[in-house]
Specification:
about 120 residues; mainly alpha; globular; membrane; transmembrane helix
Length: about 120
């Protein structure tokens, strides 16, 4: 189990980096999947920051420093992303069908990054 506890958070950090690379270089792949329209250069810039830069920074530092608290911070961030998505379903009336891919990604990332605490 120690191997699993060590590698689950690393896998989560690597996937966070992969998502960050997509968000940084091809933000429209993420925004289109979430029905977000990027209508100006500043919209692209914001998408690159939120979906790219923040994910890249967090994932890279987690791998470089390999500190449990950093993995925990990333995991909790993904948990709160999931909480925000679930809240949005009630407050903004987003459908479960439209929200399911995001719910799966958010929950999977949280489980991977917090997996070291569980196992």
């Amino acid at each position: 189990m120690d191997i699993l506890a060590e590698w689950l958070p690393r896998a989560g950090a690597v996937l966070t980096i992969v998502l960050g690379l997509v968000g940084f270089f091809k933000p429209q792949l993420i925004t289109q999947a979430q029905q977000i329209t990027l209508g100006s250069p500043m919209a692209y810039s914001e998408a690159r920051v939120v979906f790219g830069g923040l994910h890249l920074g967090g994932g890279i530092m987690a791998l470089l420093l390999h500190e449990p608290l950093i993995y925990m911070t990333l995991g909790v961030a993904w948990v709160f992303g999931l909480v925000a998505r679930l809240y949005s379903m009630a407050a903004d009336k987003t459908s479960l069908k439209d929200s399911t891919p995001g719910i799966i990604v958010d929950a999977t990332m949280a489980i991977l990054l917090l997996g070291g605490l569980i196992f």
